[in-house]
Every structure is written in C-alpha cells, then in structure tokens.
C-alpha cells in the first residue's frame, strides 16, 4: 500500500482546506476581517497556525477562499418571469441577508481595504456581484441593456441604505415603492 503524498489530491489536505475555509468564513461573518486572524482560524478549525500559514500565507489569501465559500453558498430565489414579482422576491432575499447583520462586518472589512489593496478590490467586486446576481438577472431579462446597471444601483442601493446605514426594517411596502420608482425611470425591452 502506497503512503499518501500529502499533496493536493490527498484527502487529508482536502479535509484541512475545507475545515479551515469553513472556520474562516464563520469567523469573517461573525467577527469581521480584523478578528479573522490566522491564530483565530487555527483555533476554530483545530489546526496549527503553521498549517494555516502554509496554505494561506497572507490574510487576503485566507479571506479570498472564505469569501469564495460564502459566495458559492449564496442562494437566489427562483424566477417566474414576472418582472415585478421576481424583483420583489430577489430584493426581499437581499434585505433578509442584510438584516441578519453578519454581512455588515464582512462588507466593512472588504470596503476598508479595497482602497489600497488590489486583492481586497477583487473580493469587494466578487461580493457585490454575488449579492446582486438575482436582481441583475431579473433586470437583464426585462430591461434594455443600458437600463440594467442604473436600475440595479437604485434598487440595491436603497435596500443597502435602509438595512445597513439606517438600521431600519426593509418592509414589503418599501420594496414595492422602490421598485415602482426605479421602473418608472426605465422601459421594459
């Protein structure tokens, strides 16, 4: 019987990576970027700091895999073909995610670093892309291409401000109002 090489195909390496990435994602969502250190992730995952550093030499490396895991775990509501209803469902899902409060710390850490770190800019873009995938898809299916991004910014921006900056509940009536206002400025294709 051959001994395992400890390389990328080794099940122990895959298990270690999985455990560490899950621990990193949990720490990032619960505590934020600053608290998600190699030492904290090692403690949560049950591995040594040396093991963490061997696979993720920098905090950006660690965050990249954690954010990829978070983004891959994101679910978007199914669409039914009705612009208004699909937008309402997608915006409600986004509002629910933001109301949980876990993404505030995640976004704050990424945004803070994006101004001076290209890796963090990439993570910021990935988070935005993931968070807006459902809404973007609905808009793209119904609006002229040049109306998609401005309408997306109006809708997502309103949800983000209400839930995160104002700390208010994003009600169904609020969502309906912003959809009406945004669609009033665009013409379905």
TrEMBL record:
<keyword id="KW-0238">DNA-binding</keyword>
<feature type="DNA-binding region" description="H-T-H motif">
    <location>
        <begin position="37"/>
        <end position="56"/>
    </location>
</feature>
<dbReference type="InterPro" id="IPR001647">
    <property type="entry name" value="HTH_TetR"/>
</dbReference>
<dbReference type="GO" id="GO:0000976">
    <property type="term" value="F:transcription cis-regulatory region binding"/>
</dbReference>
<protein>
    <submittedName>
        <fullName>TetR family transcriptional regulator</fullName>
    </submittedName>
</protein>
<dbReference type="InterPro" id="IPR011075">
    <property type="entry name" value="TetR_C"/>
</dbReference>
<keyword id="KW-0805">Transcription regulation</keyword>
<feature type="domain" description="HTH tetR-type">
    <location>
        <begin position="14"/>
        <end position="74"/>
    </location>
</feature>
<dbReference type="Pfam" id="PF16859">
    <property type="entry name" value="TetR_C_11"/>
</dbReference>
<dbReference type="InterPro" id="IPR050109">
    <property type="entry name" value="HTH-type_TetR-like_transc_reg"/>
</dbReference>
<dbReference type="InterPro" id="IPR009057">
    <property type="entry name" value="Homeodomain-like_sf"/>
</dbReference>
<dbReference type="GO" id="GO:0003700">
    <property type="term" value="F:DNA-binding transcription factor activity"/>
</dbReference>
<keyword id="KW-0804">Transcription</keyword>
<dbReference type="InterPro" id="IPR036271">
    <property type="entry name" value="Tet_transcr_reg_TetR-rel_C_sf"/>
</dbReference>
<dbReference type="Pfam" id="PF00440">
    <property type="entry name" value="TetR_N"/>
</dbReference>
């Amino acid at each position: 019987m051959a001994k395992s090489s400890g390389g990328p195909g080794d099940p122990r390496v895959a298990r270690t990576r999985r455990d560490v990435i899950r621990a990193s994602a949990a720490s990032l969502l619960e505590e934020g970027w600053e608290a998600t250190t190699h030492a904290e992730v090692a403690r949560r995952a049950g591995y040594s700091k040396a093991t963490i550093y061997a696979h993720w030499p920098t905090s950006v490396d660690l965050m990249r895999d954690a954010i990829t895991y978070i983004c891959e775990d994101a679910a978007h509501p199914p669409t039914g073909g009705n612009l208004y209803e699909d937008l309402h469902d997608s915006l409600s899902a986004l509002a629910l995610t933001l109301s949980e409060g876990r993404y505030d710390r995640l976004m704050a850490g990424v945004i803070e670093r994006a101004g001076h770190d290209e890796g963090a800019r990439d993570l910021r873009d990935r988070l935005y892309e993931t968070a807006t995938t459902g809404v973007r898809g609905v808009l793209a299916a119904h609006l002229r291409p040049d109306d998609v991004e401005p309408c997306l910014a109006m809708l997502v921006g309103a949800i983000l401000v209400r839930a995160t900056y104002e700390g208010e509940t994003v009600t169904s009536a609020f969502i309906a109002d912003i959809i009406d206002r945004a669609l009033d400025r665009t013409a379905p294709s």
